[in-house]
């Protein structure tokens, strides 16, 4: 009985669980505007307009480290009207984006599902790169004041975006 207890204790000590690095991010944009029309039926009209500058959305984005530099990724993104709560994109719950994929630092990324096309991805990447280069250039010329929350938060955000 004593030998069985020692063997069980040694087995439990050696069989420790291994947890992979994973992350899930809840994100979103609420975009609501006020539309003013000066000549609506001989008087002025004010209207709330959802998605005034860009569409309102919320989403879940995540990744799971599979080891050897390989990660599983996913993104589920919902579009909606702030005023009514109605789903956008033809009433689909995740009509903006809904995809899964694999990414590896050495090989790139492959995704399957509903997602933005390569033109949108390319445009976003070029905007992020341009913003990052401008910020780095201003830092090198002493034009960016590093103390303060917003300057450092923007710098960290752009550096994070640049890496992806």
Descriptive report:
It is a single chain. With 164 residues, this protein is of the alpha+beta class. The protein has helices at 2-14, 118-140, 149-163, and strands at 22-29, 32-37, 45-50, 57-67, 70-79, 97-104, 108-114. The strands form 2 sheets. Strands 1-4-5-6-7 form a 5-stranded antiparallel β-sheet, with no helix packed on it. The longest helix is centred in the last third of the chain and has 23 residues, at 118-140. The model is unreliable at 5-16 and 144-164 (pLDDT under 50).
Overall domain count? 2
Q: Given the helix and strand composition, which structural class is it?
A: alpha+beta
Task: Please give the count of helices.
Answer: 3
The low-confidence runs, each spanning 5 or more residues with pLDDT under 50, are 5-16, 144-164
Q: Based on DSSP secondary structure assignment, what is the total number of beta strands?
A: 7
User: Could you estimate the helical fraction of the residues in percent?
Assistant: 25-40%
For the terminal residues, how far apart are their CA atoms?
56 Å
Order of helices and strands: HEEEEEEEHH
> Looking across the biggest beta sheet, what order are the strands in?
1-4-5-6-7
Assess the beta-strand content as a share of residues. Answer: 25-35%
Q: How is the biggest beta sheet arranged?
A: 5 strands, antiparallel
Principal-axes shape call? extended
| Average of pLDDT | 75
Rg calculated over all Cα atoms: 24 Å
């Amino acid at each position: 009985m004593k030998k069985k207890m020692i063997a069980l204790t040694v087995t439990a000590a050696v069989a420790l669980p291994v947890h992979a690095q994973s992350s899930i991010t809840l994100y979103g944009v609420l975009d609501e505007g006020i539309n003013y029309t000066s000549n609506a039926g001989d008087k002025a009209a004010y209207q709330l307009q959802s998605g005034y500058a860009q569409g309102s959305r919320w989403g879940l984005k995540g990744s799971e480290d599979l080891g050897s530099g390989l990660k599983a990724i996913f993104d589920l993104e919902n579009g909606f009207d702030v005023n009514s709560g109605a789903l956008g994109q033809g009433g689909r719950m995740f009509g903006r984006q809904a995809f899964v994929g694999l990414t590896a630092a050495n090989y790139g990324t492959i995704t399957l599902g509903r997602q933005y096309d390569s033109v949108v991805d390319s445009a976003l990447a070029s905007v992020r790169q341009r913003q990052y280069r401008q910020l780095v250039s201003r830092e090198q010329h002493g034009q960016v004041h590093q103390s303060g929350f917003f300057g450092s938060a923007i710098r960290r955000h752009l550096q994070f975006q640049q890496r992806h």
